[in-house]
C-alpha cells in the first residue's frame, strides 16, 4: 500500500510510536506475513535503524515468548524479513537471546534455523562475533555449530577469536559432548588455517 512509504520518512522514535499505535507487536501472524511482504516491496529500502525498530516491534516479543516451535506463519514472516534485513534482525534477536537467562531452548533452535537457512554470509559473521563477545554457555554451542555448518570463509581475525575462545573455554566444557563436536567441526572446516 502507498501509505507504507511513511516508514521511510519516520525517525526511529516516530516509527516506534507508529508500531505501538498499530499494535504490530501483537497483530495476528497471518497479517504479519503480509506486512513483511509489503516491506520487501518498499522502495527505497528501509534504513538500518528503521529496520531494527521494525524487527524489534514485529518479532522480539513473539520470539522471547516461544515455548514451542514457531508457527509456520511466524517462520514465513521471519524468513521474508530476513531476506532483506538480516543484519538488523540478527542484532535485535540475537542480542535478546544472549541476554535471556535460563535455557531459551526454542529461541536457540530458532536462531540456529535462521543461521542455517536464511542469513547471508555477512550476517553469519555478525552472529559469530556477537556470540564470541559473551561467555560461552551450553545453550550457545548449537548456534556456533550452525555457524560452522555454513562453512563460510571467515576473516582471519574472527577465526583467531573463535579458536582463542574455544581454547580458553575448554576447561569449563571438559565433559561436554557438544563442545567436543564444536572443536571437531572447527578443526575440520578450517583445518588449513588452524595450526
TrEMBL record:
Signal peptide: none annotated. Residues 1-194 form the Fanconi Anaemia group E protein C-terminal domain. InterPro entries: FANCE, Fanconi_anaemia_gr_E_prot_C. GO terms for cellular component: Fanconi anaemia nuclear complex. GO terms for biological process: interstrand cross-link repair. It comes from the Eukaryota. PANTHER family: FANCONI ANEMIA GROUP E PROTEIN. This is FANCE protein. It comes from Hippolais icterina. The gene is Fance.
Amino acid at each position: 500500500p502507498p501509505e507504507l512509504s511513511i516508514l521511510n520518512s519516520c525517525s526511529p522514535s516516530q516509527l516506534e510510536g507508529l508500531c505501538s499505535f498499530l499494535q504490530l507487536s501483537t497483530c495476528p501472524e497471518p497479517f504479519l506475513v503480509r506486512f513483511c511482504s509489503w516491506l520487501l516491496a518498499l522502495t527505497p529500502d528501509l534504513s538500518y535503524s528503521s529496520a531494527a525498530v521494525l524487527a524489534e516491534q514485529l518479532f522480539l516479543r513473539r520470539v522471547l515468548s516461544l515455548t514451542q516451535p514457531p508457527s509456520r506463519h511466524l517462520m514465513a514472516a521471519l524468513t521474508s524479513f530476513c531476506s532483506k534485513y538480516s543484519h538488523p534482525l540478527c542484532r535485535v534477536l540475537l542480542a535478546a537471546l544472549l541476554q535471556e537467562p535460563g535455557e531459551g531452548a526454542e529461541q536457540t533452535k530458532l536462531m540456529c534455523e535462521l543461521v542455517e537457512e536464511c542469513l547471508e554470509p555477512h550476517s553469519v559473521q555478525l552472529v559469530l562475533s556477537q556470540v564470541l563477545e559473551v561467555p560461552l554457555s551450553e545453550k550457545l554451542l548449537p548456534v556456533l555449530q550452525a555457524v560452522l555448518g555454513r562453512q563460510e570463509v571467515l576473516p582471519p581475525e574472527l577465526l583467531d577469536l573463535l579458536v582463542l575462545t574455544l581454547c580458553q573455554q575448554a576447561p569449563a566444557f571438559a565433559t561436554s559432548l557438544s563442545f567436543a563436536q564444536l572443536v571437531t567441526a572447527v578443526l575440520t572446516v578450517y583445518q588449513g588455517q588452524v595450526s
